[in-house]
Amino acid sequence: xxxxxxxxxxxxxxxxxxSDAKTGFGLRDWCGADVIGECRLPEGTVSLGLPELRPAExxxxxxxxxxxxxxxxxxxxxRSWLPVLIEALxxxxxxxxxxxxxxxxxxELVDAAARGGGRLVDVRVxxxxxxxxxxxxxxxxxxxxxxxxxxxxxxxTALAITRALQATGTKATFRATGQTGIMIAGDGxxxxxxxxxxxxxxxxxxxxxxxxxxxxxxxxxxxxxHPAYAGVTMGLVHGSQPDAIVLCHDPxxxxxxxxxxxxxxxxxxxxDRYLEAARLTNPAVTCxxxxxxxxxxxxxxxxxxxxxxxxxxxxPVCDPMRTGVDAITRHLLAHFA
Amino acid sequence: xxxxxxxxxxxxxxxxxxSDAKTGFGLRDWCGADVIGECRLPEGTVSLGLPELRPAExxxxxxxxxxxxxxxxxxxxxRSWLPVLIEALxxxxxxxxxxxxxxxxxxELVDAAARGGGRLVDVRVxxxxxxxxxxxxxxxxxxxxxxxxxxxxxxxTALAITRALQATGTKATFRATGQTGIMIAGDGxxxxxxxxxxxxxxxxxxxxxxxxxxxxxxxxxxxxxHPAYAGVTMGLVHGSQPDAIVLCHDPxxxxxxxxxxxxxxxxxxxxDRYLEAARLTNPAVTCxxxxxxxxxxxxxxxxxxxxxxxxxxxxPVCDPMRTGVDAITRHLLAHFA
Lengths: 337, 337
Description:
The structure is a homodimer. Chain A is α/β, with parallel strands linked by helices. The first copy, chain A, has two domains: 8-122, NAD(P)-binding Rossmann-like Domain (Rossmann fold); 141-335, P-loop containing nucleotide triphosphate hydrolases (Rossmann fold, 3-Layer(aba) Sandwich), CATH 3.40.50. Chain A has eleven helices and eleven strands. The first copy, chain A, has a six-stranded parallel β-sheet with strand order 7-8-6-9-10-11, sandwiched between helices. In chain A, strands 2-1-3-4-5 form a five-stranded parallel β-sheet. In chain A, helix 3 (82-90) packs parallel to helix 4 and helix 7 (199-206) packs across helix 8 (230-240). The longest helix of chain A has 15 residues, at 299-313. The two termini of chain A are 36 Å apart. The relative contact order of chain A is 0.12. Chains A and B meet through helix 7, helix 8 and helix 9 of A and helix 7, helix 8, strand 11 and helix 9 of B.
């Protein structure tokens, strides 16, 4: 995948549920300065509150890419979206997609890209040659967000920690491992789409050697306790060689999402298992905090939960949405001072 | 990958080192009844001691496939091999390859396959739709060979255990996860070539529901302690849901092969880590023995090593090449009686 061309026009297609436009909301919230507008089909009803621009208008205003900002069940690109994508390509923009359908499977889009000079970018596909992992230490510091399950805030937490570190004047870069993260960062590798033998190598490539005081903050994927995806998580842990991990958890979940027969481990066990895995390539790894997705808790419930967890684990416990993550970054910077 | 068509003619190409014909030796040793001959180029000097047959002669004798029985550095198919492959295809045989070069990348082979009606089979490529893992238990029993490292006898041990079980009248099937194993079994999935998200699902597909007293004996891949491949191993462990594991080890290795900075764990630690990983999808998993590749030990050294290890681990310790694996299968059958 090439580096993405910003700024973006976000395409919200024909979706009518805000949850189907999660990608668009993520981009608006985390790289808003790179987004100059939104556009949709007549059937679409979801808005991000951004200026409405046709692709031609966005191109005139300097947009580099039209980004498909929706994620619908099945991941297919319907033909009804093509006219808008073609208009963007005809005005020289790239089209960026995280859908399963390859953009290049539509001859009309290939032709329009050739006419306009723009690119068809599928963020789940990487063209880089990915080596196998080496396990060799490289300079620079790395933090990896890990979780008790999928989809409970690992990307959000990594983005929040990156910002919080930068706000203290610390050199920090968010490293994206999934499609929305890649669109936000403009670069990255969708590690779950890599051939299995190369996941650790992809993670090494994603966070290359850097200044000794620079932090790569790497978006985690999957969970070591997930019966389908733990292998991806393991490869990402080994290749990232984290100096620090932050464990993400949603206390409303008792079992892996959609796997009611798979209970989540206690948080202390989860931390120990991640540290044990990470020690293979970085024996000095440590856990610097817990990021809780507490959206199902009242303020009172959250406060009680947080106090109890701090006592149990003797680590900073944040909800990035409620409290920010300063307690975690303070602990991190003190530990690595 | 389709089920392979036996019997085989083994193509030894132009290799001059027996180690480059490891695949051919493995096929001769483990499915000799399915191999009717060997053929090579004039430059080749390695023989498996089988009848020498031209592809036309092998086809007349009923051969279903010409199998490329060599593994050379880089994994490329040179053009000098094409005439022999084309002769096989022109006589209606399939050509089977575990090389990195796709057979279908040669138009001459595609044409010859069309003429003869045979198939070009790359065993590292699977055409099956692979689902993600479910973690759901399925009937039948499963044994997985695991290792402290790659390439120290996991395939050999799984094949030996399968034979030993069958010799006792126990229903048992070898399940292949790598290219040579797939050629021996005639079927299987090269799990390291699967997209990372689907490794556990591939392992579930590979050992489907079976009779409650049937054993799938699954060829392990990689190692949990390998900085490049542990993710593949983890997915294979979770999807295989082993009831029993056998740990394979080569006592001449102190570190992961080609990774001198990565020490091997003590065997007790290795067993515990594999059991811990496997418990996610099968809490009742147990270790039933140790398979040692003792080729670097004298008979005296082996006896002392074996006695010490039995004492330390309280498990049967075999070298499949020296002692066979009956001690392991006896222990297995007693445990699961």
